[in-house]
Design a protein that fits this description.
Length: 300
């Protein structure tokens, strides 16, 4: 367990300890992060093709992904709506013109295309493709260094994080309710509760959950984690404009760890600039917890 945590924490801490002042270098890091997502998903697709009893395993992947998504997302929604009822949060600014949700959905679906390409290549069973799992581990370590760099240089100080009560509370509700949903999903599927907790700890960070849980729990659960978290992002994009007027905390919480990047423009334009500090703090906390919790719960 400790070696698994070290593999996750050391690159993350290493990156977080490096301050960067050069804006061009920060932009390069952000571009590299985007590229590494595609690289990791490509390797995951290759690993998937080497599964024994492939057709049966594909059915298991989509069963696991569907059950975990329904349980985790429903738990998040119920808990966050209760928070909105007890602690309303209404934005004062009017809704702005939204970006094309269809365009954003298609951008997310491109990620599935990368997995499919890797999968089709893996079906050729070329000998050097057997090294895909080792390559994915090195790619994951590099990704975590980049994530640490991004978190350190996101502009958020510890004071700003602790002062934004809304972002912290929404993140806490997401974590606790996701645990409940993951445990229920595991029980329904006859899996260990610990596995359900690992599946619930990515908070929509599909590139990390896919590769990390593939390494720890195998390609079936790793692929199920990827599709579970990708579905979260797609559904969040569709629901944010509807929820944000009367359930702003719910709209923020369903974004999970993506509220600092991919879903941030939708949050801002659907609500107002008031939501940005909470969205960044919320994502910062979940992004920091996700690799640690997944490594902890997926460790043997």
């Amino acid at each position: 367990m400790y070696s698994g945590l070290a593999i996750i924490l050391l690159p993350l801490i290493f990156g977080y300890l490096i301050p960067i002042k050069c804006l061009d270098l920060l932009r390069t890091i952000n571009r590299l992060l985007s590229s590494m997502v595609y690289v990791i998903l490509f390797f995951m697709g290759i690993s998937l093709a080497f599964l024994d009893n492939l057709s049966a395993n594909l059915q298991m992947i989509f069963l696991y992904a569907s059950v975990f998504f329904i349980c985790i997302f429903s738990s998040n929604i119920l808990a966050l709506m209760l928070l909105d009822r007890q602690w309303p949060w209404r934005n004062r600014q009017h809704q702005k013109k939204l970006p094309s949700r269809l365009h954003m959905v298609l951008e997310s679906l491109r990620l599935c295309g990368v997995v499919v390409i890797g999968f089709l290549l893996g079906l050729t069973h070329i000998s050097w493709l057997t090294y895909a799992s080792q390559a994915s581990q090195f790619a994951l370590i590099f990704l975590l260094v980049l994530v640490g760099l991004q978190l350190r240089n996101s502009g958020m100080t510890l004071r700003e994080i602790t002062l934004n009560k809304r972002g912290m509370v929404v993140a806490l509700i997401v974590v606790i309710s996701a645990f409940a949903g993951g445990a229920i999903g595991a029980l329904l599927l006859g899996l260990p509760v610990k596995t359900g907790l690992a599946m619930s700890s990515a908070y929509g960070w599909y590139s990390l959950s896919g590769i990390l849980l593939t390494d720890a729990l195998g390609p079936v659960l790793g692929s199920a984690a990827f599709f579970n978290d990708l579905a979260r992002e797609l559904v969040a994009i569709m629901l944010i404009p509807t929820l944000i007027r009367s359930h702003a905390s719910t709209a923020l919480g369903i974004c999970g760890a993506t509220s600092m990047d991919f879903t941030l423009p939708v949050l801002q334009r659907s609500g107002s600039v008031e939501i940005i500090p909470a969205a960044i703090v919320h994502s910062f906390i979940l992004s920091l917890l996700a690799p640690i919790l997944m490594a902890f719960f997926s460790a043997p």
